[in-house]
Amino acid sequence: MAENIVIISITKLSSQQTVAAQHLISKVHEHDQTFRDPYLSNRFNYFADMPAFFLALHGQELIGLLTLYADEDPSGSVDVTLNVVPAWRRQGVAKQLWQAARLVLRQYGYYEADFLAEKTFLKTAPDFLANTGLVADPVSEFQMTLKVNGHQEKDPDLNVTAMQAADIPALLPAYVDAFPDSNKEEAKHYLTENLQADGSFGYVCRYQGQMIGYCAVDFGEYDYLFGLFIAKNYRGRGLGSRFIVQLTQQLAAVRHHSFKLAVESDNPAAHHVYRKAAFKDEGEIFYLQAEQGPWYLEK
């Protein structure tokens, strides 16, 4: 067990802590040949005052980071990411971080947690699942990436613009239909956050003047697309791919960044749409659960 390790918990990362976290994550990616970055904001968490970041410090050095993404109420599950500097692994750092996070989750009434792990990491650590008692959910998630090269002609039937507050009421029914696990209150929260947030924006797609789709974009070193949907009556007509192409072309012309997004393995239709828009698989993420042992979030 590592000594002289201090664990601190916070709701939001400072700019200095964000830089340190990004540096740690880069080290982990380089060592493990992974690609998925944890989300370094708590703005979608159900409880704004719940600590979402747990930092393991050795002196002034950040050697471990645990994040909690809890956008559902306590009846739902929390996504947990754990990153430890390779030189500090197998010294109990991850367990200390989880012990601190588990206390917080219990305090806020959460009893289900999913630990995220990439396929490449699991391949290089074949005993990891057996040693931890974690079990992979059969549904995984593909992270996809796109680098826009050149310029394509504007689609004459589509108009992609930044979302306005007046668009939200019309988007709500289609949002809930596209994401049946959400309700109107949660949908409104998501859409409003992307209207107000720094570094993240929502975009709407109109087809022949009719609003038919939505996508949020988180701006950073690369631009991350999420929450994308096409209204039910307009699916199956290739409009999703055309929307993505127009959106990424417009953003790339100004920002010159690459793009990333995630799609679940049991959603082949969406996977096909993103491939048609020239996205390629970059990595596969598994959601791991514990039914007993030190990683179990028991009631």
Automatic annotation (TrEMBL):
Pfam families listed in its UniProt record: Acetyltransf_1
Keyword flag Transferase: yes
Domain (N-acetyltransferase): residue spans on this chain: 8-149, 158-299
InterPro entries linked to this entry: Acyl_CoA_acyltransferase, Bact_Acetyltransf, GNAT_dom
Molecular function GO terms recorded: acyltransferase activity, transferring groups other than amino-acyl groups
Alphabetical UniProt keywords: Acyltransferase, Transferase
Protein name as catalogued: AcetyltransferaseGNAT family
Organism: Oenococcus kitaharae DSM 17330
Upper lineage: Bacteria, Bacillati, Bacillota, Bacilli, Lactobacillales
